[in-house]
Structures
1.
Amino acid sequence: MAEERQSEQPGLEPDRLVFGLTAPEVMEDPWPTYRDLVDQCPVTHVEGLVNPMFAMARRDDVHEMLTNTDLWSNRHGSGVAYDKSVGSVQRYDPPEHGIRRRFLRGPFLPRAAAQNEPAIAALATELAEGIKPRGSAELHDDFAVPLPIVAFSRILGMDEDDAHRFKEWADLTTLGMTFPERAVGVRDAVRNYTLNEVTRRRTAVAEAGLPDGVDPVGEVVPAGILSQLCCHPLEDGSYATDDEVTGLVAMMLVAGHETTTSLITNAVWRLLEDRSRWERLVGEPSLAEQVIEESLRFDPPVLGNCRTNNEEITRHGVTIPKHAKVLGLLGPANRDPELFEAPDEFRMDRPITELRRHYSFGWGPHFCLGAHVARLTSRVALETLVEHLPTLRLAGEAERLPQPFLWGRHRLPVAWD
Ligand code: HEM
């Protein structure tokens, strides 16, 4: 029973069953607290945020949360606040969710995603060769931030020259998921930018005066999701509203960029932390795909997502009132010994089919649309670093992102000979 728990873990207050999501010790290393939650307190309260919240730590509960859409709704958003704004695909429940997901999925399918590889590889090489003469770099700023922009900009059909703004907005948007008051203004900035892009496209289509039946996307407006949303109806005949388009762009800034940067920095950090791992990869670069998947399992860039329950439920002796915000923790689910042998060990050569049972891209109907793109970008990142900077080593303290739901290095000083 949760009430009988005896934990001394810093992230838990035994008498009140409170999980200190933002406690400094938990921010630094959440895994000991996760283990304690799983063993002794699988449903707990989270306090200190804008709303009181619950957290679930056991894999079967998290799995149910991600797959049972009758009980667990996404319509209040995946962050801490009850967000009523019309948003991205992630905000919808069935059947509206499926309509939007089918509309968007084309550029994310494996073959379409693979078409981005030459451009990603070219930028990765340019970035690595650009820093090489310096002998040292901040791998987050100089490599892992700019690289995911290629696929993100191409899929959305946005201008790569605006990349510096995307990064700033992504940082503020993610901070706003936990601390909404710190992101005031960013929503307006993203909205204004996106509406401007939408107006440009609509004007270009109107001025082109194309005959009926000719698709303007890729002809008079750039290819990509943004133009499709402006020009093509959904399968129910409706068009995405301006609110939906701006909501989607805001969500993709976080989902499509920040997370991939974290995957790259987390993977390089773990490899350099024990440098024999890095040396092994230099000798066997074909391990890059498995290393990326193990990094996803071991260090999930998204530590958890919120859902809202449609009815009161009781789990492990704790009653959760209807319409609560409940955080499903993906990190502990990835270290379930029933799924992975020695789950607390970072292994470079676990079989890929076994590895893909992790929860880092979610599970079920909302499974990450960008998973192929993220895997591809990060694999290319590792292959490029191994080839161009084989003597890479850590050159200072790595620092984690300040957002408690996200797990990535936002400082990663490195050097090479
Ligand atoms: C390592 C990188 C990434 C990680 C760890 C990640 C993680 C996730 C997770 C956990 C979810 C499920 C959210 C939920 O269940 O509520 C999700 C959904 C989503 N992701 Fe990703 N993501 C990554 C990269 C990307 C990229 C590169 C894109 C697009 C360019 C993307 C687009 C999306 C979208 C659109 C959804 C919503 C899908 C839906 O609701 O049907 N993600 N992602």
Note: Residues 66, 74, 78, 89-90, 101, 152, 155, 252, 255-256, 259-260, 263, 301-302, 305, 360-362, 366, 368-370, 373-374 surround protoporphyrin IX containing FE (CB under 6 Å).
2.
Amino acid sequence: MAQDKRGLELTAASDEAAAALDAALDDFLGFGREAGPLLKAAFESDADMPMAHALRGYFFLLMGVGALRPRAAKSGEQATGLPGTSRERAHADALSRWAAGDTAGAARRFEDILLDHPRDILAIRLAHYLHFYHGALAQHRDSVARVLPAWDESVPGYGYVLGMRAFGLEEVGDYARAEDFGRRAAAIDPSDAWSVHSVAHVMEMQGRAQEGIAWVRENEAHWEHKVHNFRHHLWWHQALFHLALDEADAALDLYDNRFRADTASDDVLDIANAASMLLRLHFRGVDAGGRWEELAGHAAGRFSDGIFPFFDAHYMAALAMAGDTESVRGHLDAMAGRSGGATADAVYDDVGLPLCEAIAAFGAGEPERCFELLEPVRYELYRLGGSHAQRDVFMQLLIAAARQAGRDRERRALVAERAARKPGAVAAWMN
Ligand SMILES: [Fe+2]
């Protein structure tokens, strides 16, 4: 039987087909730009590899576009219909669950696969992704810890696993160990954007803005031309460091010339980066010019995606701040009417919808209503997933709403709270 490069059994017509699939997976792990064509080449080697069908389905889902879910489901059916190992059947099942919105079920499946196959790096990465967007931080940390004993320098992809370990530790506040793992990973492969990103997060959370700017710049040459849209997120982090230093002009320059230079992109993380940065700049009194309208043009059609409410909150920011009231209403209605049995449904009901209504109220010039909607759910926002650094924008929204609504008691308390969390960030003291 064929094997992948980490020694896992793979149903494939030939070693060449298995190697072609490895190449597609490698590119995916490194956030490269060739994963699609490489997967196509793998299908040309062997059209009936269950893991190739699974990988294609996962690629559809990772794009975060509702319209691609049926195609992911079809890939799940194709993978299910092919003869395969128990691991391959488990992937087919995980994919089918995920495509149906049962992301909790998919995450459990990945963890189950990893008990038997701790070197299944695809399952590691996808569990990492889902735990992250579930806001399941302990699972996000422990998932990688459980598999690490099966890894060392001799196993291809070791650096990626160290990078994931780093990010899991960072999000639970274990910064020293996170930085150590992240730096080890980046030393193995400085073009590994996820590992570079993990270290940037440590610096963000510790208010090490100057170091953070230098860190992103130092590694840039390695990933700038290799990494797909995720490179925009690293430049977004660089802009965050500038904001912490109260350097709004530098942040806006990165917005225009780096992470939102491609205004044709409707990639979900690209939109989230951009909307998040424009909100933060808005809170600092920076005029967005026509930038909100540009983003709203991409966000308006995303009502029915219904993937994770974290994404919707950023679409909502674009729509609300651009004053597209019709799309705001449509988007809120779509979120209120969910009943598909998806893992995300309860998060939409409990947190996503109140947050999006709060954002809509802020955009409509109703800060008191924004505050009243957002304050009761502020300690539940972790359920949206995303990182602490990303969700900080909602804390800033709450502070801005308190200020505009004349709630000085609350504003003072919230600013003190935020500044205590990020004492090195000059801007945290200035709200
Ligand atoms: Fe990040």
Note: DSSP finds 22 helices and two strands in the chain.
